[in-house]
Batch of 3 targets.
Target 1
Amino acid sequence: MTDYTRSTAAEIAAAIASGETTSVAVTQAHLDRIASVDSAVHAFLEVDAEGALAAARAVDDAFAAGQSLGPLAGVPIAVKDVVVTKGLTTTAGSKILQGWVPPYDATLVTRLRAAGMPILGKTNMDEFAMGSSTEHSAYGPTHNPWDLERIPGGSGGGSSAAVAAFEAPLAIGTDTGGSIRQPAAVTGTVGTKPTYGGVSRYGLIALASSLDQAGPCTRSVLDAALLHAVIGGHDVMDSTSIDAPVPPVVEAATRADVSGMKIGVIKEISGEGFQPGIKKLFDQSVQLLVDRGAEVVEVSCPSFEKGLAAYYLILPSEASSNLAKFDAMRYGLRVGPEGVDSPSAEQVMAATRDAGFGDEVKRRIILGTYALSAGYYDAYYGQAQKVRTLIARDFERAFEQADVLVTPTAPTTAFKLGEKLDDPMAMYLNDVATIPANLAGVPGMSLPNGLADEDGLPSGFQILAPAAKDERLYEVGAALEAALLAQWGGPILDKAPALAGKAGM
Amino acid sequence: MADAVVDYDEALATYDPVMGLEVHVELGTATKMFCGCATGFGAEPNTQVCPVCLGLPGALPVVNATAVESAIRIGLALNCQIAQWCRFARKNYFYPDMPKNFQTSQYDEPIAFEGYLDVELADGSTFRVDIERAHMEEDTGKSLHVGGSTGRIQGAEYSLVDYNRAGIPLIEIVTKPLVGAGERAPEVARAYVAALRDLLKALDVSDVKMEQGSMRCDANVSLMRKDADAFGTRTETKNVNSLRSVERAIRYEISRQAALLNDGHNITQETRHWHEDTGITTSGRPKSDADDYRYFPEPDLVPVAPARERVEELRTTLPEPPAQRRKRLQSDWGYSDLEMRDVINAGALELIEQTVAEGATPAAARKWWTGELARRANVEGRSVDDFGVTPAYIAELDGMVRGGRLNDSMARQVLEGVIDGEGSPTAVADARGLELVQDTGALEAAVDAVIAANGPIADKVREGKLNAAGALIGQVMKEMKGQADAAKARELILAKLTS
């Protein structure tokens, strides 16, 4: 019997559509896999076996009745816990939302449900998506399936780990500064951040509104394209959503042709200062693209150097405002201050926020409140916005010379849990290559780029495209993926250690 | 406790008042500013809410296009410039009935700016009120504090919050500092708010009901010594909700601040509450210029960039300015200034216009609406609107009088019947058998009988004392149960006695 937990989403969908298996069987197989390995990985905060199986049965019934369904019908999926799901606890990895059951679905969840995709559960994440390691989750860290002592990346470590550990064929992530791409890189999976506005933000608990973008976490480029097509497209509920059809991503992933394409290597993020094994793999992959007919050009994006600094002003500023609603009054946690008989609303609010928010969240709220305050706005937030404009111009100029830009996704492979927890700056540096895309709103993808010589851990290859030209990510990504699979003789995840039996550690 | 005050005239002898008026207007759109929830007044608490206006995690705003167009029309009517491109901003502060703990508003990029409104005062002169800006924002919810004696949060056992109002579109219209009004400052403020109310009503963008809070005024007042060259410290009296209160509150603040300044005290910059019953203001929270709202452009909303052609299209939808319209109607109708003022005070301008359009004479329309109907409404403590009397009915009634079917007192009886729900004036007259007797034979017989029965009075008339005829007319009317045409009766009596 086929173990569908090792299959891609495209394969599963085909098997269900042809009657070779059922959605219930596939969904149950994944629930079993979660039961067997998730106590070791901790990718999930909440598993909804009942809901997932009910949705799977509905798909099977629809197929039995001869209905024609969407291309991913019956394929189960995991959803990052920052995305609100009606009737299913949503916490954004924070204590302050412990036990909150939203009364509505995010638009992308509505689309998943309409596409007949059973939702397995909600995946672990850094609290309110603040972090690069999933160690800032209020519910404990997620472990990297490649080495359970190591981080799975962040903030969407749960989604990528679930996909890497074969607990879910697909997952939804959100990427504010790299939180889809960086976890994909360190777990050996594919992660795509669509163009800003390409997937509705309605129902995403906002971290930084002008940067947040939901996207697919998968094991293949084609799967990412299929999922992108399901969740993407205009939404009247999100005023920043792009009012245009989803770019032809599935066609591009199927075509996978880079002949005649100009690949721009960004001088400032081409591997200098990156882990040597990562730099070496990156250079080899660029050569693979050249072998397939692409032309390589070197481009310069001088403002990227300031991207990290601008990001760490804009993000906390917006976050400080977005998180103000968590005031202990209407939903989530409420804590009374100790030793006070009849506390005021302000005292309850302060006690709740103290108990409900973790250190990283408090750090960023304070930073953002300061950066926006009168007298500092121009020096901090205003300057950061100017840098943002410069970065967008850098991209524009670079895309005049190249169809896509490429970089290693993250500077290092997965580091050990706890290693950088006391050094926020070292943690922030992990996102140096991914952040510019969020500041400029352009799409980006990370795909598995092999294992670094020095530690045998996965590294990622990042592709960036101009805004609204998401299909180029898939065209180039699928071509490189094909070349690498041929070289490796199969998916890189086949080289990961088996997890079964490690449950309970 | 009331503060010390000085006599108003005394205050004005020493100080010049400077005012800044901020008027909040709830727009009468069907849906809220940033979501599709209904905006009806008086619904059960928390029945007109959704994830967006409740500020639930993940929810996003979308701008109500109708509200933007209303804002543009208001801006144009206030002679403002309309922004080519503007944004919403977040005003970050904590407030119990504000679900997101920030208010989506406009800060440095208002939709309309740099305008004016000419305001007519009682003496017929005009005062130009310069408008700084008109910007869009959302209203907050409403708190109800239960268990205390004052309805205030202090002493309450618990508080309830109704979010139905949260997210209703608001326009805030802010004046520039108004200087030079002198002792007429309170009158200018009242006249400005009244003119604004009339204008917004004519634009049909709001129901402008101050008593329901759909229009409210914050009045900033400061005093400057007549020889000073800089403004004094101001206070802001919040949420004044009637025209009369606007005038009284400002007058009070002038007297109160003058008393403090005279005694060598400084004015504290603060918000103040107006108390309708006692006619005083009391201290609210201290407010400084450094209130840090940490404004920044709202990242969840795309900028608003109204197309110039659309702005010009909207300009063509502007109504005739209310002041100009009043002048035109007064001249069309031939009313005296006094009559016109009565009509405006009775709020009967529209009714009269419609009644005249239905065919009544301006004089009759005014007589009925500001006379009989207003009197009765006043006596019964009701509103003229409640009577079920339409302009068409009044025109019909006037037609019956002018056509000779009814006399004045019969017309009044017919109107009673209409108010009592007996139907149209014709139906009431028919049902009650009210009709002037046109049969000259019957009238002549009655006149003859009355002359015969009242010899001494008839003699007086014969002697040339024509006033005495009145008594005979009265008798004829009595004889004919009021259904005689008094003018004809007089004609007949005089013909019989003096020819």
Note: The first strand of chain B starts at residue 15 and ends at 26.
Target 2
Amino acid sequence: MTAIPLRYRVPWKKILVSVLALVFAAYLVLPFYWIVAMSFMTEADANSLPPQWIPDQPTLENYRAFVDPTAAQALVGGRAVKETPFALGNSLLVATLTALLNLLLAVFAAYSFSRLNFRGSRVLLILYLVTRMVPGVAIIVPFYLLMRQLDLLDTYWALILSYTTFALPVTIWVLKDFFRAVPRELEDAARVDRCGWFRTMWSVVLPISAPGLVAAAVFSFMTAWNEFMFALFLTSTTAAKTMPVIAANFATDINTQFTVMAASGVLAVLPPLVLVLIFQRLIVTGMAAGSVKG
Amino acid sequence: MTAPAKTRKPWSDTARGYAMNAPALLALLLLVAYPIGYSFWVSLHRDNLAQPAVRKFIGLDNYLSLVDDPVFLCSLGVSALFVLTVVGATVLLGLAMALVLNETFFGRGVLRSLVLLPWAMPGVVNGLMWRTVFDAKTGALNGLLTDLGWIDEYQAWLSSATGAFLLTAFAQVWNTLPFAVIILLAGLSTIPGELYDAATVDRAGPWQRFREVTLPWLLHPLLIVLILETMNAFRAFDTIYVLTGGGPGDATATVALLTVQRVLSYTDVGLGSAYAWVITLITMVVSVGYVGLLYRRGSFEV
């Protein structure tokens, strides 16, 4: 006779964990699913009561609006619909250049912290951290005036420069940890081969720390892509307006169709989302390294 | 005569260190330090961009006027309440999520990727998304609650002061949660498994294991999450701007939002800079406390 094992216990913990995992997954995905679904709905379907959870007649009209708006869409979405393609291009350019400029500036500083023992290096590191703590609102006005003096208002450069200041301290902190993980022997070997420090850094340290460089670049890209306040202040035309500025126009214009607004939201999330999904492991290590250690 | 192997050392480490930091330092000096200093100078003036003629040095008057400015004081209160709500919820929810993600279960890898989804969402889009969810006429929240039979008729969630405040906080929490989860998860993964085995041998229950093993190891990551989220919530701007614009009334008008309005809508850069400096000072006090706490715990390695 096969008896039930004597010490059989209901796996409460497993059940609890699975249930919680499901709840969390729903919490994370459902709101996003809602705007994605909405972006494929016709205006009538989006306004139907009760709301449709799956679009009845899925349509690409809302996305087509950005390239070729119908009369109605051009009217309700106003300028925002027409400006979206430019804004996407601007965002892409600004975020990419910010990421590159950040790496360029941060690589040297981070390398110096990982290998050189110099007076004041601790103070310098903390100084970088402190600049990160200054809230954007605190410097937006003088920054605006500075950019006006330099005649950079409504250009990419105003944004690239301001985002560089946000991202630079984080980039230096993340890279410094990655550089420190490079075994010293490798560098010594390069030195024996009579490589100067620059050659050593360039051909030994950087290739090994490639994951760190990518993580740092993704960070800066996302910072630049997501930023809104500076973009709102420093840009005024399609020459430099970024996606968040346009998305805010959609949201504050009471005439906007929710469906077109949802489509613009999806477009604005797509690039950072793709980056996050591709580089998730690197991002998680980079983020954890940068903060758990200090 | 053989000369000793030439050790070229034209640069001392210190000189090299500063040379390598020069580009970054120069950028930050010009783009952060100068604006900060200048901002303080502006905050000592009556200065409205719309009326260049009345620009005048007035010392600390802008700051003194804040002490009995009801709008400003109210916004400080709103900010404080907002920070408490958002940080409290983020830490609790983040901790719960990190603990779950630290277990093994079917689909863990997927959930770990999903956690990053809100992080990829720009604040403005986050606000925009929740606007369509909370909408009074066609929103998903109304639809869901009606489907579940929890409410009889559609509610205008964002038009009551309490509703707007709580939902704005909710939207903010959704956006900032991934950061907390990742840091806490990284902290959890450093706890040696033997500690739990030992605790189990000692017949410690789940709650005891959490209190005696998990929590002490998590203190440092928790502290980091606490402080960084505090600063984040204190300057939260984009989600609120899109979701409620500070309303209804001044229910969600935080200091950060008010500062931007003061400068952007009223072009009052003098008073706006004073607002900004109050924010900076509060942030600084928190940061100094943060660094000090970490130093005392000996875990701030540079």
Note: The mean pLDDT of chain A is 85.
Target 3
Amino acid sequence: MRTGHFKERTAQLVALSDSKVVWSFAGLLLALVLAAPFLIGNYQVTLLVSAMIAIVGAVGLNMLTGTTGLISLGQAGFLAVGAYTNAILMMDHGWPVWLSMPAAGVVSALVSLLVGVPSLRLKGLYLAITTLAFAFIINHVILYAEWLTHGPNGIFVSGAKVMGVDLQRGKALYYLTFGITVLVVFAALNIQRSRVGRAWMAIRDHDIAARVMGVDLLRYKLYAFMVSSFIVGIAGALISLQIRFVNIDVFALILSIEALAIIILGGLGSIAGAILGAIFLSLLPEAIRLFFDVFADTNSSFYTTYVYEIRGITYGIVIIAFLRLKPEGLIGLWRDVRKYWSNWPLAY
Amino acid sequence: MKNGLLALSAFLLASTAAYAADPGVSDTEIKIGDVNIMTGPASFIGRAVSVGSKIAAAEINEAGGVNGRKITIVTEDDGYVPARSFQALTKLIEVDEIFALNGTSGTANVLAMMPLIEENNLPTVVTTAPNELVYNPVRPSVFTVGASYSDAFYAQLKYIHENSEPANAVYGLIRQDDDFGGAVEAGYDRAVKEFGVKDGLRIRFKKGTANFAAEVAQMKQAGVNVLANGGIIAGAANILGEARKLSMDLQVASVWSEDMPPSVNLSAPAGYDYLVADYVALSGPAIDAFLEKAKKYASDEEIGAINRYTYVTYVGLKALAEAMGQCGQDLTRACTVEKLRGLKDFDTQGISAPLSFDNPEQLSGTAVAVYQLNAAEKTFKALTDFADY
């Protein structure tokens, strides 16, 4: 008989899930997401693509910040590196997208060494500021290396085709992004329960204790930087495919802050949390827009003048309220619901 | 039987016409999209744009609309973020099913929307980003209202060279390290070469820079007394503020954003009566008449938000309506694009030089007039008429 969520063997502990119900729901969810483009409109498909790209980026950042405890504000920089690598290789060197996308991840991972190596002995706010400085440096490099990046002019990205299918449009882009998202999520889940993942968590929880246990801090921190940046670079490449234009303005610093907000709101250290946070923050503006559209006719002059500010303020209030009332994030809320469901009618 | 066949033929013809019609057009309405900066520090631009569209649409609708169809403006906010511009235009096309686009945000934002615009052959009048990247290479359905920054700076420096004639003139340039800054430098470069004046110093700064103490000190050291100020809004004001601290005697040429009331309020305290070249009028009877008209169609708050971007968007929508009107009842995007391409000397009632898109770049409003700020009164007087440079 199942008794709550207690684990009795190591295999149970490291299994992705020991519940058939969870696997059934996951299968159902996957089927729904696969069928979505046939059930909803093109705009909603675009929103889902944006949300999935946010998931990929958030999972990447979560490996570094949530799992390893290394705070990074350089997300925008790595996204830019990935996007520009993909754009340059595709448009200036004629690489096919199936080669340029992984290359975007590899280049981003290699570039992460530039910030990773000097930052190995830093943590907390010191590391955050270092990674922030990296984002600024990338910004400058992109602007001044005109021979490579076309400087402020940016690059239009087109012609991402595989076997004649245009990967930058509607359903094709959706399924490409979906496939990459599933791959990234499964890779992240597996890395987290591997030796490397456990070492990262040990570093996050107490780095001195981890070192005493034999974890090579420098090596594992570098691994974290590289894996995280590889995934973020892929997210950048996806952005370039979706927007079809890369320019330094696309990768403003606010992206780094939003990425951090996603993983904090979702629940630090949890892949599911990163997914929930990315979906929540990507779709929140749309939800707010729909909410205000309902009232648009009741006081139209008021909304005509202030609706955009009200939307922005509501967005901020929702985030503040959430963090104040549920600091462990959306995943904490989900765990509470699950606990309540399992234990009902008992409280504990 | 014969009548039945006739009725069937008529029905088929009618339904063919219905299927041939492009999105955003019904018997009574034409939906025009507007992607703009409605939130964030630059939102005063987006609000001004929005008011321009609103006034033009109200005026057109009151006069019977475009061949009986009323114009409806659907605005989406992009917060000046290119990725959101793309998202916003996707929404306007897919959900709101707009027929054409009038308000178009900043340069990178328009460029991010460009693949969608081209894919949908969306008639687009670019009103807020007359950057060369937008009209070169030319996109068939994109029409740009506005002069080039290069011409605007050249016009001002030419005026200074020919009229102010400062003694021992040393020219200097300070500009952003982006495409816009590059365009400013092109105008400066043309001027110093053509006039044979001393090119004292050229400085690039990073977009978003707030402190210009070192840059202005360099200017002073180089003896600059004619400054091409490529800073925008707070940046431009900070440059002038630093120059005032160093008691520099300067003739200043500025970006057209510096004729907006928020910019003037920031810059005027430095006390420089700087020049601005613009492709829309800043004062005079045309503007007085426009403001009178605005009282009829806009709220007090919206009137308070009016600035040069309002005028640009107003003339942009009027030009678009003119082209749509020329298509008659069979309004399609292809026809509108065709008519826009043929638009010549469209009268804007003095708000700008007449608009013509019948040129290879589909760029209109290339003529600029030079204005001078009275820093004490925060007003502008025209120094030249609209002229092409």
Note: The longest helix of chain B spans residues 43-62.
